[in-house]
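Subject: for your reference before the review

Hello V.,

The reviewers asked for a structural picture of the protein, and I figured it would be easier to keep everything in one thread rather than splitting it across files. Below is the amino acid sequence we used in the manuscript, unchanged from the supplementary table.
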Amino acid sequence: MQSNPESRQDDPYDTVFIRRSFRSLVRWGIVILSVINLLHLSLFLSYGSRWWAFSALLILVQAPLYLLVINRRSFPVFIGGLALLILAFGIQLSVYCTQFGARAGFHYLLFAMTPLVAFSGRIRIWHKVVLCVLLMLQMLALEQRTAPDPDISAQALECLRLLNLASAFSVISLFVLRHFMVVAGMNSKLEHMAAYDPLTGMINRRRMAEVAADELDHSFEKHSALSMILADIDHFKLINDRYGHQFGDQALLHVSQTIMQIARDGDSCCRWGGEEFLIMLPVTDLQGARQLAERIRVEVSRNVLRLNGHDVGLTLTLGVVELQPHEGLDSAIARADEALYAGKDNGRNQVMLGQPAAQ
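And here is what came back from the structure prediction:
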C-alpha cells in the first residue's frame, strides 16, 4: 500500500511492506477467485445445471475489480475495490449456500479469507482475532444450512463439496507459501544489508568480527598461520575536501575493487571504517601477507583515478601482522594499526610489518 502519514510508524504490524504485501494478496485473491468460479462454471455445465450462468456473472463482476487494487491506485480506491470484492463474495456464498445448503461445501471458501485478515495492514492484532473468530462462527452457521430441494444431483453436490474443499485448502496453502517466500526474501536482503558495506560491496566491520572469530578458532585448532592487513588511503581527507565526496566515494570503490581482485578466494575483505580496509588471510604467514599487501599497494598507485576531468593518483599505507598463538583480534588489529601509522610517519605509500606482541 501507499504510505500514509497518519499510520503508526512505531507499529511493527502496520508497515509499508505489510500494506504492499496485503495489496498483492488481494490482487492474487481476485485472480484465484475467478479461477474457482470458472471451475464452478465448468462443473455446472458438465451436469447440465443452469447455475453456470451465475458463475459466469460472478467472473464478470469480480475480475474487473483487479484494476481497482493495483499498486498505483490510491488507498480510497483500493478500499472501495476491496469492499466491492467482499460484498460480491458474500452474495456469492449467500446465494450458493441458500440454494445448495452445506452439502455443496461453499462455506469452506470462508477459510480462504483468514490469510487476508491475518496479513492485512491498518488493522490491530486484536481486531484481526475478532474477525477470524467471526469468520469461524459464520462458517459454523453455514455448516447447519440445509436446502430442501437443491437443483442438482447428489453426485454433483459431492463434486462441488470436494472442489470447494480442495479450493479452500489450495488458496490457504498458496497464500501462506507466497507470504513465506516474500518474508524469506526480505530477511535475506536484511541479512545482506546488515553484513555488507553498501558502497564497496565488502563485508562490514560487524560481519568481519564474526568471520575473524571463526578464523581465529580454526587457526588455533589447526595450528595454522593467520595474518592480517590493515590498509588506509593516504591523504583521503584532502581528496574529499579538494574534489568532493563523490570523488571520495569513487576512490573508496576503486581501492576496494582492487583489493578484492587481488585477494584470494579464502581471504576476507572488509571496509573497516572510513577509508580503512581490513584483510584476513587464512593459512598465510607474515611474509606471504607482506607480498600480497605489496601487490595491492603497487596496483593502487599504478592506476590513476579519473572523474569529471580530474586525474588523481591514489596511494595506500598498509600494516601487516601475523597473529601469534592465542592472540586476540583486538591485539592483532592494534599491532597492525601501529605498523600502519609508522608507515604514515615514514612517508606513506608503503607496507610496514607489525612488531610482535609483548609476551
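For the response letter, the relevant points are probably these. The two ends are 62 Å apart (CA to CA). Residues 25 and 116 are 7 Å apart (CA to CA).

Happy to draft the paragraph if you're swamped.

O.
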